[in-house]
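Worked example (supplementary).
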Amino acid sequence: MAQGKAVLVDVTKCVGCESCSVACRLYNELPPEKTGAEKHELEAGQWTVVQAHTVDYKGEKVRRFVKNQCMHCLEPACASACFAKALQKTPEGPVVYNAKLCVGCRYCILACPFDIPKYEWDQVFPKISKCQMCLSRVAKNEMPACVSVCPTGALTFGDRDAMLKEAHKRIAQAPDLYANYVYGENEAGGTSWLYLTDVPFQQLGFNTGVVKKPLPGYTERVLRWTPGIAVGWGALLTGMYFYNRRRGEVEKEEQGKKKII
Amino acid sequence: METKQGAARWRFPLTPTRCVLIALALLGLALSAYRLAAGLGAVTNLNDHWPWGLWIGFDVLTGVALAGGGYSTCLLVYVLNVAKFKSIARSALLTSLIGYLLVLFGLFMDIGRWFNFWRPFVSWGYHSVLFEVFWCISLYTLIQLLEFGHIATEKVGTAKLHRFFEKILPVLFIIGIVLPTLHQSSLGSLYLIEVGKLYPLWWSPFLPLFFLTSSFFVGPAMVMLETSLSGKVHHSTPEPQVYNGLIKVTGFMMVFYLLLKIYDLVSRGVLNLAFQNTLEGHMFLLEMLGGIIIPLLIFAVPAWRTSRTGQVVFSVLVTAGLILNRMNVVFTGMSRSLGGHYFPSFIEWAVSIGIVALGVLVYLFVVENFNILPQGRDVQQEKEGSTRAAA
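After joint prediction of all chains, the assembly is encoded as:
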């Protein structure tokens, strides 16, 4: 389990019963769902939602349900962006949030390529709100609460490499059914949540434009230069400072000599 | 006689403009206190689509760049020893110090869990660009306060203390150039992780270099703007050749900036995006034309460069262009991928305007009570000379 645990979501098997989001709410003791929430979207206190999509597919209107939650990137941009280590990738797989360390800068929200972290805007001291992939359960090798209640087998939990293998096996066994793509295999360098579907991903609200390389690398490549620049530039400035000061003194001395003459 | 001198020691004449500034500053401070008590969501229009708004975009990202006059002037005057810029050095350093204090204030307003502001000092998220920015800005503000200690102890404190500051000044200057070099570029690096989100006209692997270069070239323009404004009030305008020299410094840096920009856009194959009929394209062209190309024309024509009007137009355009650039990165370039709506609330505006008003008041007070502007310094030196002669 070099890459930790993962969940495979098979959209073709989901019937949109919402058992998963109820289990999430109960297990994580989240506040009750806001009544009259028309939009079914992630928000503070709503770590996972099932979104219904009606799409044209092979000449007919079909309904598909997509469970939404944090993708738990292998190299998460949010954790890389956090300057207080409040967000961290655990070896087990989940990317978890520690409110005790959080300053509330919201750089993680901006950094996330999947727009997942939400903020408790109605609080005086807001926390970041996102799926923790039930770390305490996963650490004991138990499946996350949402997976444990899924009645249709749309959610499968296991080691990430096993889940990837399973996804490709399903595609190979039913190439006419599935789109030949595992979303999350390479998105943002790979994620711990993987998706299979029959309808093309972009029709189901997936951001198919996500960069395939791990995002932290973009900043690391630049940050790596920091100590060198600090020392080199400092040394150069010191050299120039003393050189120019000495030159100024010499000029003054010469002017003084001329005056005497 | 003694007491009279004591009373005359600090002066701050109240004019109608200053009364307005004081009112704005007080309103801003009162609303800031309210924001700390009520929380971000209650007073701002920020939301999950737009986690960063006016306070980060203007107060922090633009504020730090506009305060870049401090380190660029420091480099020119104290390290490269360019004598003609010496007359403006102190006012540039002062503006920079006030600018950074305002930035820290703005940053404090913007963090949601402000009681935790000190966490990154102990919980090192060193992989974050924000970590470097946070440390550098904090340390640099400290360095600038110490630099100001040298000026302040001319008037208050003991001669011994003044000599101490005099001695450590070279160290402060060098650290005070290294730190801004790091964090000015890092403010650009903040957006490297927005790859795929920030519009390609602004996202670039060269973002840190663009932010660094532009903060360096806006420095002299800001110094020109601010000395010519405060010069009117304090009857101390620097000589024309000083401005001429500043325009040259800015101009050459801008040529480098423009060439790098063109190279970057062409090599990534996105130059055509600038000429498509989109909001992003228009804003980008406006930024480049108004903030870079027209100022470069003024720079290139000696008659314009040396005229007073030309110099004022130049510095206004360069400064406005930089503000537009930062706004484009934070707002225009992100709007397509973030979705949703954001426009700053009344309190966000009032706090931003209030702290700028506070900054102007502090600047005026310090200029009128310490040796900042060239004229005042000459007077002081003359006084020192005459007392020394008398002794």
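Two points are worth noting when inspecting this output. Chain B touches chain A through 55 residues (CB under 8 Å). The two ends of chain B are 21 Å apart (CA to CA).
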